[in-house]
Specification:
Structural class: alpha/beta
Order of helices and strands: HHEHEHHHEEEEHHHEHEHHHH
CATH architecture of the largest domain: Alpha-Beta Complex
Subcellular location: Membrane
Keywords: Membrane, Transferase, Transmembrane, Transmembrane helix
Membrane topology: Multi-pass membrane protein
Number of helices: 14
Bound molecules: 2-acetamido-2-deoxy-beta-D-glucopyranose
Helix content: 40-55%
Family: Belongs to the glycosyltransferase 32 family.
Oligomer: single chain
Largest sheet: 6 strands, mixed
Protein name: Glycosyltransferase family 32 protein
Length: 331
């Protein structure tokens, strides 16, 4: 009897341990806020301040954007133009599907097979931004983000991304010097994360999108990068909440399906979901225990018949008696 309980406990611990281990990085995402790497509002010069010209300009003055082709939809032309108008001294690069593929084929041929194999076009739009930041450096901006002020103060940090609530980082506005180790790790990890999940939204998020980037961010920070290798974090207030923030956010995400609503609901109710997960998990374990392990301990006389119960194939168990008879013959 004790042996069964011990086996049951060991198996339970192993299953729980494995489950926690596989989602450990995700769990840490819920508790890490990145404030130690925050670009604080106090160190950012105000718009039009003379101090802007004194900050170092490490990131090259290039703005990268992506779209299927050159015909940008009307509702994104405003935000796009706001960034171009504010930055006449920046180079502007629009990465169409065609240009993106040519660039990967020429500069990162090892990735072309993965790139072509992605089932969703948004995965190519996600990945091309990491590669152009790694290759050219500059600032990547989603087409639904407009510019609210000049981005020059953000050129002072070798690499930065934007924090999202409730958890993680986004890939809709990012800046870096060429060959920054964070984006090197990002592009290097892409093939390994190229997996299919049940819902398209999860597949995109976890293979190339913000969830993928957030997990890479956690792994990267575990190595304790210092100095120029640090990845700095732009918080929501500096991103778009105020007149002195850098961006304005416009609605119109091109690829959000219905499952996005489920994911957002899950993100908002993660405590409830975690709790339910544990309840369901333990209920299943409890059922297994009551149905399969306990009866063996209670029925039948002590050791012998219990073991034969385990050993005998089912078709021989016509009745309890016959079963015991078999057993006796065998032993
Ligand atoms: C650009 O892509 C859009 C969306 O697929 C399409 O409707 C449009 O015809 C394309 N424009 C050109 C010039 O190919």
């Amino acid at each position: 009897m004790r042996k069964n309980i011990i086996i049951f406990l060991v198996v339970t611990c192993a299953v729980l341990g494995f489950a926690v281990h596989s989602v450990w990085t995700l769990l840490t995402l819920l508790f890490v806020d990145g404030s130690e790497d925050a670009i604080s509002r106090a160190e950012l010069p105000a718009p039009n301040s003379g101090a802007i010209s004194e900050v170092p300009q490490l990131i090259p003055k290039i703005i990268h954007q992506t779209y299927i082709n050159e015909s940008i939809p009307a509702h994104w032309k405003g935000p796009q133009q706001s960034c171009i108008d504010l930055h006449p001294d920046y180079e502007y690069k629009l990465w169409t599907d065609k240009k993106a593929r040519e660039f990967i084929a020429a500069e990162y041929p090892w990735f072309l097979e993965t790139f072509d194999g992605y089932p969703y076009p948004i995965q190519r739009a996600d990945t091309i931004r990491y590669f152009v930041l790694h290759h050219f450096g500059g600032i990547y901006i989603d087409l639904d983000d407009g510019c609210n002020r000049k981005l020059d103060p953000l050129l002072a940090y070798p690499a930065w991304v934007r924090r999202t609530k409730p958890t993680g980082i986004s890939n809709d506005a990012m800046g870096a010097v060429p060959r920054h180790p964070f984006f090197l790790k990002t592009i290097d990890s892409l093939p390994e994360y190229n997996r299919k999940w049940i819902m398209p939204y999860i597949t995109v998020m976890a293979s190339t999108g913000p969830l993928f980037l957030s997990i890479i961010w956690r792994h990267y920070n575990n190595l304790k990068p210092e100095g120029d290798a640090r990845l700095r974090i732009l918080f929501p207030d500096e991103y778009n909440n105020h007149p002195w923030s850098f961006f304005t956010h416009h609605l119109g995400n091109s690829w959000h399906n219905n499952d996005v609503k489920i994911i957002f609901w899950m993100a908002q109710h993660w405590i409830l979901i975690t709790f339910l997960g544990f309840v369901i998990g333990f209920s299943i374990l409890g059922c297994i225990y009551t149905l399969m392990i306990k009866p063996r301990q209670q029925n039948g006389p002590p050791s012998k018949s219990r073991f034969s119960y385990v050993r005998l194939p089912f078709y021989r168990r016509v009745s309890q008696k016959e079963f015991e008879l078999d057993d006796r013959h065998k032993v």
